Amino acid sequence: xxxxxxxxxxxxxxPFRPADAAAVHAACQDPxxxxxxxxxxxxxxxxxxxFVGPFTARGWREDTTYTFAVxxxxxxxxxxxxxxxxxxxxxxxxxxxxxxRQAELGYWSVKxxxxxxxxAEAARAIARWAFTDLGVERMEWxxxxxxxxxxxxxxKTGFRMEGTIRAKIPHQGTRRDAWAAxxxxxxxxxxxxxxxxxxxxxxx
Length: 204
What we know:
Layout: E1 6-7, E2 11-14, H1 21-27, H2 32-36, H3 45-62, E3 66-72, E4 84-91, E5 102-109, H4 118-133, E6 138-144, H5 148-157, E7 160-171, E8 174-183
Parallel strand pairs: 5-6
Antiparallel strand pairs: 1-2, 2-3, 3-4, 4-5, 6-8, 7-8
């Protein structure tokens, strides 16, 4: 699909641009990002240039990942030209066009902008867009067990924790346990085309 732009009270979520390479490269020098995500380590300028160019463009074009640059709204600057505060988007959407209608939410945030609620604000905007415009009926979130910061964002977004999945995440030659959570349209007060019949509420 063609990339879209989402806006919130404080943020503009837009497609990445080649000019974002320097900011992405600088952000990913923070050791917490490669520690808890799939970002390569060491993270080079070439990695950043591929991410903001071919990688994210291919994701939108092939409907495999919809990645947004999360930027601040700043007085006196055109929308989308504010400081980069992170990256967020939908990944693993191979089932989006099927009856499953599921997608996974992923994100990372720039160290200097953490603790202000920007990532949760962006995550909520993406979730609402996915539910209302893309027909997603179940959003998933996974993080390596122990990633308390990512878990806090998921909870603020409205996700409900579902437990720990053993050995789900390959990381640096090992397999790590993952925390799992889900978000449904009804969790945000939105309708879903396919009725949800939770266990215990089914009649036969």
